Structure formats: C-alpha cells, structure tokens
Amino acid sequence: MSHHRSSRAVISLAAFAVLAVATSTACDPGADAAVDGATGATGAPVVPAVPAALSEQKLDWAACSAPSKAQGGGDEPEALPDGTQWECAGMKAPLDYAKPDGRTIDIALIRAKAAKKSGKESLGSLVFNFGGPGGSGVSTLPAFAADEYLELHKRYDLVSFDPRGVGGSAGVKCLDDKVMDAWLAQDSTPDDAVEEKALTVGGSVYARACKSNSGGVLEYVGTQEAARDLDLMRQVLGDDKLNYFGVSYGTQLGGVYAHLFPKNVGRTVFDAVVDPTEDYAESLLSQTEGFDSALQNFLKDCVKQEECFFEGKNPAQGEKEVTDLLKGLDAEPLPLTEGDRSLTQSQAVMGIIASLYSQDMWSWLSTALEEAKAGEGDGLLWLADSYFERTPDGAYSNANFANTAVSCADSKDRFTVEDVRRKLPEFRKASPVFGDATAWMLLGCTDWPVAGHASTVDVKADGADPILVIGNTGDPATPYEGAKKMADALGEGVGVHVTVEGEGHGTYGVNKCLTKAVDEYLLGGTVPKNDTVCS
C-alpha cells in the first residue's frame, strides 16, 4: 500500500499506506548534513562525493513522448495554457552512492520552464514529488499543472521526476499483467489455515518475481538514495538550494533530504504529511483508523444527499450494508455486466478506500455501492483498477511494484502470520470494515529478497530554512496528527505547522486559504505563523 496525491482528478495506487518506513542515516562528506554520533554508531557507510562527471552533467532536454506503460501510459503531455511545452531528459545517477564511480542509472525528468511573460525574475526550479512511493512524477505533473500550478509557474520551472525504481528510472518489474490481475483478486482476508497458506504463497511468488526481474536494483531504491538523487538534481539543474513540493510519501522523501542536506533546503512545502515517528505497523493502524473515520463521514454525508445507496437516515445502516456486501464477496465474487472478470472482496475494499481519498469521489462511491447491491461489480472494480493504475486494456504501470520495492527497502520490519493474528484485534477495533484487510497487509515485505533499513525516519534538519508542514483534519491516508509530529521532528524554527480543517488527502488547490499561504511563501518568501489554521 502507499500514499499518493489527492485524487480529485485521478485515483492512483500511490494512494494508500505509505509504510512509514525509514532510512538509516549516513554521513555524506559531499553534503552539508551534520550526522550525530548516535547515527554514526549504527555503522552506516560513509558516502563519497559524487564525481564531477555526474554533478556537472548537461541534460539533453527534448520534447516529451507519451508516458510509457511503466509510467501509466496515456497521451503526450499538453502544453500549458500560455504555450509552454513540456521537456523531458534523463539524469545519470550512481546506482550505489557508496560507489559513485560505478554503474549509473537514468533518472527520468520532466519540466516546464518558467513563464516568460510574467515580467518577474525566475526563482529557479520547483521540484515536485507526488507520493507513492511508486508514483511517476513524469506522468503526474502535467496532469495537474494546468489546474493547480499556473501561479507557481509564473516564477518557477516546474520540475518532477520518476524516483529510482519507478516508471522510467530503472523501473522495478515483477509480474506480467495477467498474473497481476490474479494476484490482486486473491483473498486478502484469510479465514482459515488453507487461505492463510494461499496468501503467503502468493506473497512469496510476488517477491521471487521481483528478484528475478529486477534483483540488481532492489537494494538501491530506498528513500535515502532518492534523497541523494534530489541533491544531484539540484546541482545539475543549477540551483543553489532545492525548492521542493512534496505530497504524501513525498513529505517523507523531503524530510530525509532535509536531514541529509539541511543547508541545501530552499523554499519547501509538505502537504498530506507522513508521520516520521511511526513504524510500519503503527502507520498502517493509523491509516486504518483514518479510513474508517472517512467512511463514517461519507455515510453521514450520504444521508443528506438526494440519492444514497442505503435507505433511511442512520449511517449505521450504511456501514452494515457495506459490511454485509464485503462478507458476501468473501464467499462469492460479483459478476460484471461485460467481460470475464469479477469483483472480489479484496478489490471491493480497495475500491472503497480509493474513493475515500477525496470528498469529490463520494458520489461515485455511493453509485458503485448501489450497483453492487444490485449484483453488478463494475463500479467498484473500476475504482480498484484506477487505484492500482490498470488501464481498460488490462495494462498495469509499475507503481505497485515500485511501491513494494521502496517500502521494503526502507523498512526492516518483516512480519509473520502469527504477528498478524496477534494484531488483528486492534486493527478490527480501529475499523470493523477495513481492519482485517489492512492487518494482513503487514505481510507485504515478509519474503522480500533485500533487507530493509530502519523502522522510523530521521528528519531532524537543524539549520534548514523553514519548511511548511500542512495537516488536514480529515485526511484518511496521512492522518492529521502526523503533520505536527513531522514539524516537531524537523526541529525548532524549521517545521512550520499549518492546519487545514477539511476532508481529503492533500489541500493545495482545494482550500483557498491554504493555497494562498503556500503561494505567498513559495513566490514571496512570506512564512506563515506557526500553527496557522485554515478552515
């Protein structure tokens, strides 16, 4: 599971649980990071400076082609309303930063140069990461820029990238599309030993496939390495400091960057913030509570609408009908009105979860649940397919594979079936609807072929410029409390906490007060007061 960007226009896998997984800190003589003695005592390797052949490389920018299958497919990116065309390039980066003169990989980049007619001096690059882990920035940035980032485009080159292991940047490959269909449809809430065995065998097959197809890169796709790519990117783009906009998992990446390179932090915004103090299981439990809360808010809203999938005015009736539907699907999948696929319980759960990312999706969810009650699974399966980045012709991006690879590289936690059984009661308490499904997600890294790093993220960034840390009170995927913890962990005078009182995952472009505050900071350098509240 994973965190992604707000789903107002699209839903994406990079949607659910960023396994709040972490990276061991390492001393980097080529960086401005000061690493404390406790970190050094972990035995983390000293990382040599990147050679000039990489830090001074010239990028060969050219017109972008259509996104690849691994990036999610689709059409060539359209020019921005002012006529600015998108350009793409590949940046060479060390596969292993401990051996910077060794093998390199290409990091796929995209940019739209700052508007020439704004009449104001350019502020350089503003680099976006939209989360996941596993989301392709090359395909995502053009999808949102025309609606949300035109004001920022007046003074910034808008830049994004596919992090290593994602899309066009040494993208991880695991299962083929047909096998992926079967893997996602499997029973993810086992009720007996036979079903438990089937689930664990499926996980082992998945992990072996990833090793077989991408074993050479799995060790090097963690957030630590991605953060070092960001600093190499800063140098190659010609920026003295990194101006950065991170969403969801992108806030974890930004936090690790700030820890490693505090003096290189420019104007930085974290929206939909990951809690750096939680380990894998704690993060998953918090998200389970968050999605249950979002479901309750959806049900309360549903009874106020002209059309709702359940009768009466009691939200508890709606929860019962959702629970009954999922129980029925556990026994027998629902057919579709066309095609040979069916809707399983696992897919229905993920379709519901995907719809809770944004209040704009609630009417779609109500319609899909109404259809499912009538015996048609098409709506919920479409929502699940969108979440897992499956196109109508059955092709998957590599977001699912990259999500697993990055998460398991970051976290040393490896859970057993017995661990899940012990934790099931607290997950069920957190959500009677989602608890079983999310608890079994703890097995996501169990048979992974590469050892992970730590369990929580170090983001302490003494001496860094202010970082805006935005929490939304109704965020299901990165619950509100995590933003305050991130702001505190960044350090006094660094993390600037901003609260938005609203629903959904991601606030920029949704809440006018927040959007104005972010624009004033990124464009004018005006830092809002700590603990500012936007209702």
Brief descriptors of the model:
39% helix, two-stranded antiparallel ribbon, 535 residues, ten-stranded mixed β-sheet, 12 strands, alpha/beta
Kindly describe this structure.
Helix 7 (223-237) packs across helix 8. Strand 8 (334-335) and strand 9 (342-343) form a beta hairpin. This protein starts with 36 loop residues before the first helix and ends with a strand. The longest helix is centred in the middle third of the chain and has 23 residues, at 280-302. The strands form two sheets. A ten-stranded mixed beta sheet has the order 1-2-3-5-4-6-7-10-11-12, sandwiched between helices. It has a two-stranded antiparallel sheet with strand order 8-9. With 535 residues, it is α/β, with parallel strands linked by helices. The chain has helices spanning 37-40, 52-55, 137-148, 150-153, 177-185, 193-214, 223-237, 249-260, 280-302, 315-331, 345-355, 362-373, 378-387, 399-410, 417-430, 435-440, 481-490, 512-524, and strands at 62-63, 87-94, 104-112, 125-129, 157-161, 242-248, 265-273, 334-335, 342-343, 467-474, 495-503, 532-534. 39% of the residues lie in helices and 13% in strands.
Strand content: 5-15%
Low-confidence stretches: 1-45
What Rg, in angstroms, do the CA atoms define?
Answer: 22 Å
> Mean pLDDT, rounded to whole units?
91
What's the tally of helices? 18
In this structure, how is the largest beta sheet organized? Answer: 10 strands, mixed
Helix/strand-derived category reads alpha/beta
Query: What does the overall shape look like?
Result: globular
What's the arrangement of strands in the largest beta sheet? 1-2-3-5-4-6-7-10-11-12
Distance between the termini: 30 Å
